[in-house]
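Z., the sequence and structure:
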Amino acid sequence: MTYQPNIFVSKFVSCIESRFQDNGELYARFNLGTFVEGQALTVANALRRTLLSEIPGFVVTSVEIEGANHEFATLPGVNETVLNILLNLKRLAITSRQFQNLKSSFTTVGLEQMKPKQFQAYLDFSGPGNVTAADINFPALLAPVNSNHLIATLSASAQLKINLDIKLLDPIVIRKTETDDLVKTPNKLVLDNNPKPVRRVNYSIHEDPAGDRGTYISLEIWTDGSIYPTQALEYTLESLTRIFYEFTQIQKNSLASNLNQV
């Protein structure tokens, strides 16, 4: 079978619009093309599913709260229950200063090589007042996207001390809780937390205005602010390309093996 190249050889990815949203979230709209009829829908669906479910990110994976040995506990002088505090920490968007300063570092290869992937942070707050993400002592590499993100509200006599474990997680990698860790630290509360730096994705398909029967994708991406929409799209395009490339290598090796057996 002879490979016939696409008649639409002109490919483009253009950022049409970008802006800051509330609470540090980011938005951008891209145009991608050009595709033959029917091809754009296949590509758009793959991009959307990967953006929403396969982008790595930093999340709080477990915490130790002084005075609490389970998530249904209450703390004196703290308005929120421990369960509500855990939910607030679960919603906390964390970014890497490296990702914000060097956009090119957010690649599949770059994230695989990044070290460390585990971090510790802590909080020690005395009331009265609102405890926010700004009160958490993060390691130098990390920072909260929204420093005003509420953690808890304390009365005058209350004190809140929390140790946080933060990890860079890849959603497609199977993660298991380390039983030995839980035995050593019985008061550690584990958060079932999966990274979702991309909050929302919309797409629409349009005819090429040049009138040559091609189509292009208009893709909208909202992130939680921990990464740029451009980074999320670059990572997704690279990730999908690597998946299909691995299959081409399998096919080549299989053909070579069959030829050697002839």
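DSSP finds six helices and twelve strands in the chain. The first strand starts at residue 12 and ends at 20.

Let me know what you think.
H.
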